Amino acid sequence: MSAETQDGRLDGRVALVSGAGRGIGRAIAEALAARGAQVVVADNGGDVGGHDADPSVAEAAASEMGDNAVAFTNSIANAEGARAAVACATDTFGGLDILVNNAAILRDGFIFKSDPDDFREVIETNLCGAWYLANAATPVMREQAKAERGGAPYDWGRIVNITSSAGLYGNFGQSAYASAKSGMIGLTRVAAMDLGRAGITVNAIAPFAATRVTDMIVPANDEQATYKERALKLSPDHVATAVAWLCQPQSQSITGQIFGVRGRELFLFSQPRPVAMLSRDDADWDVSALVAAAPSEFETQYTDLNTDLESFNTDPKV
Questions:
Q1: Does pTM surpass 0.85?
Q2: What is the pLDDT of residue 308?
Q3: Radius of gyration of the chain (CA)
Q4: Which structural domains are found in the chain, ordered by start?
Q5: Which of 165, 181, 182, 227 is catalytic?
Q6: Which of the residues 164, 165, 175, 182 is marked catalytic?
Q7: Distances from the Cα of 210 to the Cαs of 22, 27, 127, 217, 291, in angstroms?
């Protein structure tokens, strides 16, 4: 193994990072480029709600990263845009090895007040966009695996989906955002299964970092004010380091996993599996039998309704 590989270099790889014009996405793109990867900075430059596209955002970010970066400024929230983004990578740099699905918009509202169009557009960008990009990128990656790009056995193919603790815990007024981010967990698991034989790993990261989203929080109580204060201390560079780690050859065996990054803390999340069971051999369950039996077997195992803000209410290591 070369010294370049040992110190985290990614020379020869081509990465496509969505939502890479600002915040966490930009930190990830910069970290990959700094380690020698060629990077497509995919971002249409819209605001947090997905409005007012501005191509100069991605163009400026790519320009600052140098000759190894190029901007893609169309939306990836449709299959055509995703295919064009992948083509941008292959036409410009000759391949595609790393896909980071980071693009997301936010349109919060209680379930009883939300606009159905807002829900649909959040899902289209945050979840469908990730699927569209993976759908367009993975045929390229699979062909590269067959050609043993980078050597044999092939160990360059990586997909990292940026999810959210909101998708794992939930939070008030975030039905659209949490649904999309929770959906990315299912996408991560299935894609990891589908791509395992090709040597392509797929993982998810739930980031805790200062972003436009945390900056715009208007605290409704002391708890939210404390959460915002803590979040604004966290550099997105920590998330970028974790992404670069998952792209290393030494991480080839890691796939289908969910990680959290909060400053200098790296979490490995558990995933839903049965924790208790009711079973009977003598007859089918009826309602009265379930009423009688469920409390003793299930009651201590029910998951609480704490939000992610409540679950991560300690000071991070920064």
A1: yes
A2: 81
A3: 21
A4: 3-268 (3.40.50.720)
A5: 181
A6: 164
A7: 11, 11, 22, 11, 46
